[in-house]
Automatic annotation (TrEMBL):
It is found in: Membrane. The chain crosses the membrane at residues 31-49, 56-74, 182-204, 216-235, 277-295, 316-339, 351-369, 376-392, 412-440. Its main location: membrane. Keywords: Membrane, Transmembrane, Transmembrane helix. Residues 1-21 are annotated as: Disordered. It is a multi-pass membrane protein. This is SulP family inorganic anion transporter. It comes from Hymenobacter metallilatus.
């Protein structure tokens, strides 16, 4: 059955009706989207390297592998893979455990092999069990986090790494104290460029592209980046007092020759396989990277306007292959990442070509565009992410969830709060716990139908069990049996049940054995009898 479902999901992801099928037919949309993703991904790759305590190029290598390789091995048309903020603390801890970055690279390779094995063993089915309310809460929380985290970068008051997505930051600040600190140390030049960039983005999306049709092919983010480079140079020459500080500009490493490029790669230290803690590190990276990837592709499927379905087992294999290659080349661990994927979707990406093109641009930038890209202010890129964040957490989303009732709204809003005040995986875990509570509650309430004879009429109390009766229903059934009045006639009816769990059968058998003492005349219909301990 699982194989059939997986096959169907794969087919759906490849050629659904009315959905882009060929990656070459939509280049006019995919190439601009890939450019936007590249502009967002580049500082994130560099920033995550800094946050992880890894060499600066490790994040860029991971981004290149995610774009050039994972985009083709995966069957997700819109997700973008690369280094993820959620793994920074794990890489830092792994460095402390294994004592060298080369040892961590060996663990990344082994983690990738574990992910491939998980995909072959169909472990991706876990991704099918994330409730919609939790996924929507995750997207909204990421949107809010993006908005809050980019404010310090927008005003030029934050020089730490660019994707510090957890509430408690590595620099000792938290999300809100960082904003408070930023407002007390605004960089005038960066703030000017950031606010102008934000205004241009909004004006471009709302006005320009609607009035001038051919400009729809030009992403607003590209306009903002080019404009920000011009403004940066203008401020340098015309108003030195507003000059943007170097720490608030993109900082690509200087590679001037092929020898520099080859020398930038690190190699795994295979002797680390014998070190204490190696296996634990590899499994931790594999499990966390897999969960984050499954969450991301599930969220991307929700955002996809064509509603394509990503085969999750194939995704685990793709991420595993990506981590094997990234580790061998000296790159950070890879996952599917929702921020870059959201930027891809919001920029009009249609097929995997957009993610592939972003990988090409990362490679080209590393080799040839260092001098140009190092003039881009972080505040301009923060403006791009602010718009992406708003699109993820629009007020209409909250209204929709509220109208669906508490059973959908509570897991949604609690997931948002938990992610805002912890991190992605912890927040989703809390949201899942709330979602499971409502599942248990629904099972508790839907295990049976109880009917009693009308007053002055003969007939039994009829307890009719539902089609599927699991151990989750045991508590409610035991409760209703205990509350039945003494000296009555009772019929427990399982004729419509295709499955009754042993725990429930045991509870019914205990009731049957105790019924004579209560004067209850019991009839069991299509209820298998089981052996109870002590009888």
């Amino acid at each position: 059955m699982l194989e059939v479902a997986e096959s169907a999901a794969t087919s759906t992801a490849r050629t659904p009706v009315g959905v882009p099928s060929s990656p070459w037919k939509y280049l006019s949309k995919d190439l601009p989207a890939g450019l936007v993703v590249f502009l967002v991904a580049l500082p994130l790759c560099l920033g995550i390297s800094l946050a992880s305590g890894a060499p600066l190029l490790a994040g860029v290598i991971a981004g290149i592998v995610g774009g050039l390789l994972v985009s083709w091995v995966s069957n997700s048309p819109l997700s973008v893979s690369g280094p993820a903020a959620g793994l920074t603390s794990i890489v830092l801890a792994s460095l402390a455990t294994l004592q060298s970055f080369q040892a961590v690279l060996a663990a990344v390779v082994v983690a990738g092999a574990i992910q491939v094995l998980m995909g072959v063993l169909k472990a991706g089915i876990v991704g099918m069990y994330f409730p919609t309310s939790v996924i929507r809460g995750m997207l909204a929380a990421i949107g809010l986090t993006l908005i809050l985290k980019q404010i310090p970068h927008l005003v030029g008051a934050d020089a730490d790494y660019f994707e510090d997505m957890t509430f408690l930051q590595f620099d000792g600040q938290n999300t809100f104290s960082a904003i408070e600190k930023a407002l007390g140390g605004i960089g005038a030049g960066s703030a000017l460029v950031g606010l102008v960039s934000l205004g241009v983005l909004l004006f471009w999306d709302q006005t320009v592209t609607k009035r001038i049709r051919f400009l729809r092919l030009v992403p607003g983010a590209l306009v903002v980046v080019l404009l920000s480079i011009g403004l940066n140079n203008l401020l340098d020459n015309a108003a030195p007092v507003l000059r943007i500080r170097p720490q608030h500009l993109v900082n690509l490493p200087d590679i001037t020759s092929w020898q520099d490029f080859i020398g930038a790669f690190s190699r795994p230290d295979w002797s680390a396989l014998q070190r204490p803690g190696f296996v634990s590190v590899a499994f931790t990276i594999a499990i966390v990277a897999s969960l984050e990837s499954l969450l991301s592709v599930k969220a991307v499927d929700k955002l996809d306007p064509h509603k394509r379905v990503t085969p999750t087992n194939r995704e685990l294999i793709a991420q595993g292959v990506g981590n094997i290659v990234s580790g061998l080349l000296g790159g950070l661990p890879i996952t599917a990442v929702i921020v870059r994927s959201s930027a891809n979707i919001n920029s009009g990406g249609q097929t995997r070509m957009s993610a592939f093109f972003h990988g090409i641009l990362l490679l080209v930038s590393l080799l040839f565009l260092e001098s140009v890209l190092n003039q881009v202010p972080y505040s301009a890129l923060a403006a791009v992410l602010l718009v992406v964040g708003y699109k993820l957490t629009k007020p209409a989303l909250y209204v929709t969830q509220w109208r669906l009732g508490w059973q959908q709204f509570l897991p949604f809003i609690i997931t948002i709060l938990a992610i805002l005040f912890t991190d992605l995986l912890k927040g989703v875990s809390v949201g899942l716990a709330i979602g499971i509570f409502y599942i248990l509650k629904a099972n508790y309430e839907s295990a049976y139908y109880l009917s009693k004879p009308a007053a002055m009429q003969a007939g039994p109390i009829h307890l009719k069990l539902s089609e599927q009766v699991t151990f989750l229903n045991k508590a409610s059934i035991v409760k209703v049996l205990d509350e039945l009045p003494d000296d009555t006639q009772v019929l427990i009816d399982g004729t419509n049940s295709s499955f009754i769990d042993y725990d429930v059968l045991e509870a019914i058998e205990n009731f049957r054995l105790a019924a004579p003492e209560r004067g209850i005349r019991l009839e069991l219909r299509d209820i298998p009898q089981v052996q109870v301990l002590g009888h």
